[in-house]
Design brief:
two-stranded parallel ribbon; globular
C-alpha cells in the first residue's frame, strides 16, 4: 500500500484509517509499518527501490487513500521518475516484457 504525502505522519494516519475502513479491521502499527509505504516522494521511491533491488520484477502499487486518482497522478509525476526504467529489470532477467507496464 502506498500513499504519497509530504507529511509522513499524516500519510501514515490516512493509510491506517483508509485500510481500517476498507477491510473493517484496525491493523496494528507493527503490521502497517511493513505493509504501508507512506511519506514524501523520495521516501516512497527509496522504499520501493529496495524491492526492485531485491529482485521484484512486477511491483504492484495500490494506494491507501480516498484520493486514488490524485495519488496515482502524484506517484506517476513524482515517484516513478526516481525509480528509473522499471521495465528494464524484467528484460535484464530474461523475462518477457509487458510493454513497459509493471
Amino acid at each position: 500500500m502506498v500513499i504519497v504525502n509530504d507529511q509522513p505522519a499524516a500519510a501514515f494516519d490516512e493509510a491506517r484509517r483508509f485500510l481500517a475502513q476498507y477491510y473493517g479491521e484496525d491493523f496494528g502499527r507493527a503490521y502497517l509499518d511493513v505493509w504501508v509505504v507512506a511519506g514524501p516522494p523520495e521516501a516512497v521511491a527509496t522504499r520501493l527501490q529496495a524491492y526492485l533491488d531485491a529482485g521484484c520484477t512486477i511491483p504492484i502499487v495500490r494506494f491507501a487513500s480516498w484520493q486514488q486518482e490524485q495519488q496515482l497522478d502524484r506517484f506517476v509525476a513524482e515517484v516513478l521518475p526516481m525509480l528509473g526504467d522499471v521495465s528494464r529489470s524484467a528484460q535484464d532477467q530474461g523475462e518477457p516484457s509487458s510493454g513497459g507496464r509493471r
